[in-house]
Amino acid sequence: MVRKIDWESQIGRRLKLRDLHVFSTVVQRGSMAKAAQHLGVSQPAVSEVIADLEHALGVRLLDRGAQGIAPTIYGGALLKRSVAVFDELKQSIRDIEFLADATTGEVRIACTQSLEYTLLPEIILRFCEQYPRGISRGCATENMIASSSARRRRFSMSPRSMT
Fold it and tell me: CATH code for 7-95?
């Protein structure tokens, strides 16, 4: 019977992002020695991180052999979710950079229909020239400028993706 892993005592307080990074580097590099060299740490330090992870989770994460290492099914599951964790963390850093950048943001424009088709296109063009990191969301700016027959248009500025 598989034992249940207690989040608070075994994982929540013991698992670190560094551990997941070391684990994923070991799998990527195919050996603990290559991972250690890549990370700039000793091979015993990498082995200790992996052993601590395996102990905390209560399962073997890596198969070790003459050809190097390969993740077990448990290691594969941890690796898959680790990738998601790091992707989310990277996105949160991008979000923080965006929020901290005073030249980016969102602009919502409300105006009468007559201004929408006369003055607003020129204002939007100037704004986009002055703040090139903004992009239009909703209808495309070009469509708003080119077509004055549409009844209702929406325009807002939001940050460009940094990836």
Answer: 1.10.10.10
